[in-house]
Amino acid sequence: MVLPRQLAIYIIRTKLNVPLQRIGDYFGSRDHTTIAHACGKIEKLIEEDWTVKQDVENILKALEKQKAEINVLEERIQNNTNKYELNAEDIEKSNAR
């Protein structure tokens, strides 16, 4: 359970730039030094272990895909479109923005 939590902490810190203390609050009132340690550990593992690097890249790709799907749905809602199914073309257009 430790590695998934550390991966989540690393991604939140590096991709969303959330302050250490706030991340610590999200993860059960952990101290900011614990959060910094988790980020450092994952950075080191990414350099040393290609499977961890691949895991992080796969997680980030999955998050980007979800973000693109949400963008398409939000656009359709704003346009009062009743078509809520996603297709690859819509997602690619959203990713291109």
Topology:
Blueprint: H1 2-16, H2 20-26, H3 32-48, H4 50-78, H5 88-96
Can you describe this structure?
With 97 residues, the chain is mainly α. Helices cover 79% and strands 0% of the residues. The chain is built from five helices and no strands. Helix 2 crosses helix 3, helix 3 crosses helix 4 and helix 4 packs across helix 5. The mean pLDDT is 87.
At a glance:
This protein is mostly helical and 97 residues long.
Globular, elongated, flat, extended or rod-shaped: what is the shape? elongated
Global structural class: mainly alpha
Written as H for each helix and E for each strand, in order along the chain, the element string is HHHHH
Q: Which residues form runs of ≥5 with pLDDT under 50?
A: none
Q: Main sheet?
A: none
Beta-strand content estimate = under 5%
Task: Please work out how many helical segments DSSP would assign.
Answer: 5
DSSP strand count? 0
Mean pLDDT: 87
Structural Rg: 17 Å
Helix content: over 70%
Distance between the termini: 36 Å
